[in-house]
Amino acid sequence: MSIQNDADLEGMKAVGRIVRLALAEMAFHLRRHIAGGITTAALAAVGGNIMRRHGARSAPALVYGFPGDVLISLNDEAVHGVPSARVIAPGDLVKLDVTFEKDGYMADAAVTIPLEPAGTTALALSACARRAFHAARRLARPGMPVRELGRAIEIETRRAGFRVIRDLAGHGIGRTIHEPPRVPNFADPSATERLAEGMVLTIEPIIAAGSAIPLEGADGWTVRTADGGLAAHFEHTLLITAGLPRLLTA
Asked: What is the pLDDT of residues 97-151, one digit of tens each?
């Protein structure tokens, strides 16, 4: 979407704040209770409670019928993991992905958390996803073609020895989850749309330690790497301004 007035801005700020609160509470709860063997469903309930307390709703459930309030993916699962009775273990690479709706506005963010005693690959991969996000964020100014954001993401990812999962991308957001433009994680020559002041979108590097070929799981939702290698995901919702973009979920 494009911010048209103060009501749009306040609506996006409000839902972005709830997304931020849910991610922070889930991350805190995860680290605090990991020794006790928390399930992905129990962790999702933490985010769901924040959502309901603030009058928001799960955007993936509303738009796509996703069977949960938030998405939690482990290890080789890149995105769209369905909360379940699966127990999160020490050493797991955990991706928390939250997209909420409130008063007709939607915002989206994700973090990757390597749990102790995570290996060197998990630590490097999660750090790379964050760096790739910020490399693209620094370019996100009016007039910039979206493919240049993807170029920055892929350069940073390859520099670290990893690969982007090209089939997965960032996107415009606001009134629904996936709006134009598509924001690729590589220099896609077809991604010619230019950023404009007031545009709201996500930048979300989704990267793999090995194969960058995504496979859909038997549940019809979870996307994992073809070779079982680790994957990482880092995302925020941004507002394009005349200067550096404004992070609405951070």
From this structure: 999 999 999 999 999 999 999 999 999 999 999 999 999 999 999 999 999 999 9
What's the CA gap between 97 and 19, in Å, rounded? Answer: 9
Between strands 223-225 and 77-79, the pairing is antiparallel
- The model carries a pTM of 0.96
Quick: pLDDT tens for 167-179.
Answer: 999 999 999 999 9
Asked if 232 and 112 touch (Cβ cutoff 8 Å), the reply is yes
Domains and CATH numbers, the chain: 6-247 (3.90.230.10)
Partnered with residue 41 across adjacent β-strands are none
